[in-house]
Amino acid sequence: MQTTAASREVQPAPSDRDTIVVKELVKRYRGAELNAVDGISFTVQAGELFALLGPNGAGKTTTISILTTTLAPTSGLALIGGHDLASDPSGVRRTVGIIFQKPSLDLNLTAEENVRLHAILYRLFPYRPFFALMPIAYRDRVRELSAILGIEREMFKPVKTFSGGMKRKLEIVRSLMHRPRVLFLDEPTSGLDAASRRALWDYLRQVRVETKATVFLTTHYLDEAEDADRICILDKGRIVAEGTPAAVKQDLTHEYLVVDAADRDALRRELVGRGVEHRETPLFEIPLDGLGAHAILKSIDTPLTMVRTVAPSLEDAYLKVLARS
Hints:
Number of helices: 11
Helix content: 25-40%
Mean pLDDT: 87
Shape: elongated
Strand order of the largest sheet: 6-7-8-3-9-10
Largest sheet: 6 strands, mixed
CATH superfamily of the largest domain: P-loop containing nucleotide triphosphate hydrolases
Order of helices and strands: EEEHEEHEHHHEHEHEEHEHEEHEH
Structural class: alpha/beta
CATH class of the largest domain: Alpha Beta
Radius of gyration: 24 Å
Low-confidence stretches: 1-14
Number of domains: 2
CATH topology of the largest domain: Rossmann fold
């Protein structure tokens, strides 16, 4: 496998700002020939949005299952909010909030009853049969979070009447009740339409501002990872790229100019004659590689019928990473 500046694994050096520290984490399932997670290491700092990406079978679900204490690792070290995953799993659970890919709500209860059950199971508050009898701190927290997510009017309605987007918002309210330092989002927008996806991310951004929580995201929608502080791409259980989205894109893809002309033969001859690197797809693509688009266009005499600049997306870089690995 080729390695680049973006694909070198980072050996984390824990600091006071590191909320998640993972060192040489390994998971091998019984009877398997290969590790599902194969010695990965990374850190996530307080307040970061960190995105774990990769194709199906890359190890994303296994990794997030280990970090949320639902799966035991084969070897390696993981610290979540200073709590050791192996020796203090209950401390880890108190530190994190989790939104799983598949909703885990009781449809026969109201939204508030789902939240109350969660709060009681976490031993945040004593059980009371009605919302009005719960401690004022609980009632204030429910009102505060439901207002942030825009569902305060629906909190006393049965969950079975909720849309998919409403259920996701309720899960966020529930996961934030105990003020977690780390919020794990496992495919949070899976199954939602485009409008619901956009709305949910608007709310998640507001939640990050309001709570200062560290967010650990897995997603198949690469546009959702564009705003991440850092991304980590897994393939076959190993890290194949890591860094800011901009750094990964810059290391693996290049901005290019797309041009065309009515007299394509003349344009082709001119580009070849001037030694301008290009390829036909069938339009003429000219890599910029630090050159200014304006300077290239000024050097071309053939009349052009189309000109546009293309900045590669994170998806372009992602596909190139996987092709190399």
